[in-house]
Amino acid sequence: MVCSYLVYGVFFGSSLPSRLFVPPTRDDVIADANRIAYIALVHSQESVDGIIDALNAIYHIQHTFVIHASRIELLNYLNEQFYQSINVHIINTHSTKWGGDGLALATIEMIRTALSFDSQWSRIILIDGSAYPLQKPQFIEKHAKVSIGSSPICIKGIKDDSCARFNHVAFKQPFGKRPPNCPTKTSCTNTPNNRPVFYGMQWFILSRDLAQAVADDIKWRLYLQGMHIPDESLILSIVHDALASRNQVVPDYAFIYVEWDEKRCGKSMGPGHPCEFNESNLQLLGRMATEGRLFARKLIPGTKIRQRIQSEIW
Q1: Each residue of 229-260: pLDDT tens digit?
Q2: 107-136 pLDDT tens trace
Q3: In 3-state terms, what secondary structure has residue 227?
Q4: What is the CATH number of the domain that holds 295?
Q5: Does residue 307 share a domain with residue 164?
Q6: 233 vs 203, 210, 300, CA distance in Å?
Q7: In Å, how far are 47, 49, 80, 306 from 3, measured between CA atoms?
Q8: Which domain holds residue 214?
Q9: Same structural domain for residues 139 and 169?
Q10: Is 176 in the same domain as 235?
């Protein structure tokens, strides 16, 4: 049977999610130092189902959750699921088309929302609807530490200015080429505070003070405005700038497991796409959990991989 829905006068086919929010039963008290704000972007039926599955695993009344839904019918569905949960906030502030500014700006808005609604959490974690915890929630709460991409950008062929590429018209276009990695660069000119521009995976764990630096930033947003795929540069550059001003560095620690080698996951996803995990990858995911990874993505929706992670890896 195919169901249809009328939402705000717009007709949608069988495109609404199906998962129900059933929070885990937890009566433990979490110390302030272990309280977390989880933020997530969702843009499809599958990603909403996935984030509900994740919250069914990691939810605690002392944590804060902010979800940015890119479509009105998804926002409505999430509001229905979480209307009794005062610590879950559903927002819709930006268009989140891949490659544009919206993904980064929506992420910053989620950070601001988490800061404004809860003054107690100590770390903020960005995930999405394809991510799922490889560890028990209590382990994540105790062991989550700052983690963010750390590849500075090197500019070749456009002047000698290591950051001139970001002022070049080619990199203001919708599908400009991404800059290469240059791990030897430590400083730039004509950038905010003459810091390097960083790029990498957008998934992060930030301390509260670093999250506040992201929320307060103006200079980097203006500098990278119009850049292709700013979600993989903007927040990273803000955070590394803030760390450099304190003479701090990010430790080499990747909290989320994303596999780009198709030989390891057993099937080809095409260039530029990470592996999608199913039950055949359970042993691999178990090894990643043993190595200390907290989450994995992308998990294929509609399979039993999430249930088996809980029963066989946790």
Answers
A1: 677 788 988 998 899 888 887 766 789 999 88
A2: 999 999 999 999 999 999 999 999 999 999
A3: coil
A4: 3.90.550
A5: no
A6: 11, 15, 27
A7: 19, 17, 18, 26
A8: 151-245
A9: no
A10: yes
